[in-house]
Amino acid sequence: MKKFFTLMLAILMMVSIITGCSNEASVSKEPVNIIVTDNGWDSQKLHNEIAKVIVEHGYDGYTFETSSASSTMNWQAIITGDVDLDIESWTDNVASYPEDVANGDIIDVGILVPDSAQGLYVPRYVIEGDVERGIEPMAPDLKTVEDLKKYPDVFPDYEDKTKGRIYGSIPGWMADEVLYKKYEYYGLDEMFNYARLGSEATLFASLVSSYNIGEAWVGYCYEPTWVSGKLDLVLLEDAPYDVDVFMDGKCEFPKQELKIVSSNKFAEKAPDLLEFFKKYETGSQLIADALAYLDETQASHEETAKWLLKENDYLLDEWLPEENAEKVQAYLNE
Predict the structure, then answer these.
(1) Mean pLDDT throughout 86-105?
(2) Is 257 left (phi over 0), alpha (psi -120 to 50) or beta?
(3) For labelling alongside 265, which of 75, 162, 252, 283 has CA 20 to 30 A away?
(4) Domain ranges of the chain
């Protein structure tokens, strides 16, 4: 009898252990939430949607969300660790970037786009005319930002006929601070009004509207965008880039690599995703073409991200291990 009770006790203990292990295994871990910046411009929104597809469907255990704020506020949120990543980071526009990297508050992860530009643009027909459209050159000697002083009448401000109009960057963007100082440095404030339209969509709508009817327009733009993918634009020249005077608006915006940067906590939080983002590289033309598709079809950023990945499926093999690439491909083929 004693042996019987001993055997039963042993069996019960084994059942208890097995049941406990089973219950522990059945308790799923909470997904790790990845937060990235959304500073308001289309190309970054597209990159975010591409990353979301890959993070949520190529890997297990992650969710993905964006932090919508100004670029300045989001930058500080990365430093504090409240935001994980800045995809399409214009680091040369951030005065504190070198110091933040040196302090270990910002981590360089990878190069997203190796070729980008920004500054003041005009439609090519403003300088060269367009025979097919019957447009004569309006400012044939316009080459540099400073040359704009010769042509305030070519770019009239219809709300203030005493001056021309320059369309500035978006309020809250770091580029706007530099561009406004440039506007003052070259004395353009004496003959032009500096117009801030409040959003990228409104800014580009004003450009497209003028372009479609062949009117002169001068203002901020950058590459890659859907407008740079569709319209023939010219970037006005400026003094050569000099880091010591750039923030004062006294030289051109640098031709810069657009980067992916992270908080100093991200590597530990998601080491497998870190490997993906190190390899995540695109290009100005690829993204400009995708943004042109977004505009022409009126697709959402999410739909455009899926379209881009389907049309360029080789990218998954470049960015991801085979198993993860297959998972994303299976999702796209659903």
Answers:
(1) 92
(2) beta
(3) 283
(4) 32-115+257-332, 117-248
The reply to whether 117-248 shares the fold of 32-115+257-332 is yes
Note the pLDDT of residue 90.
Answer: 87
The model carries a pTM of: 0.68
The C-alpha atoms of residue 28 and residue 10 are separated, in whole angstroms, by 29
Q: For 227-253, write each residue's pLDDT tens digit.
A: 887 899 999 999 999 989 999 999 999
Mean pLDDT in residue range 79-91 = 95
We find that the CATH architecture of domain 32-115+257-332 is: 3-Layer(aba) Sandwich (3.40)
For the chain, give the secondary structure using H, E and C.
CHHHHHHHHHHHHHHHHHHHHHHHHHCCCCCEEEEEEECCCHHHHHHHHHHHHHHHHHCCCEEEEEEECCHHHHHHHHHHCCCCEEEEECHHHCCCHHHHHHCCCEEEEEEEECCCEEEEEEEHHHHHCECCCCECCCCCCCCECHHHHHCCCCCEECCEEEEEEEECCCCCCHHHHHHHHHHHHCCHHHCEEEECCCCHHHHHHHHHHHHHHCCCCCEEEEECCHHHHHCCEEECECCCCCCCCHHHCCCCCCCCCEEEEEECCHHHHCHHHHHHHHHCCCCHHHHHHHHHHHHHHCCCHHHHHHHHHHHCCHHHHHHCCHHHHHHHHHHHCC
- Higher pLDDT pick, 72 / 255: 72
- 138: tokens are 């309006």
Location of structure tokens 């042109």: 292
**Contact status, residue 219 vs residue 121, Cβ threshold 8 Å:** yes
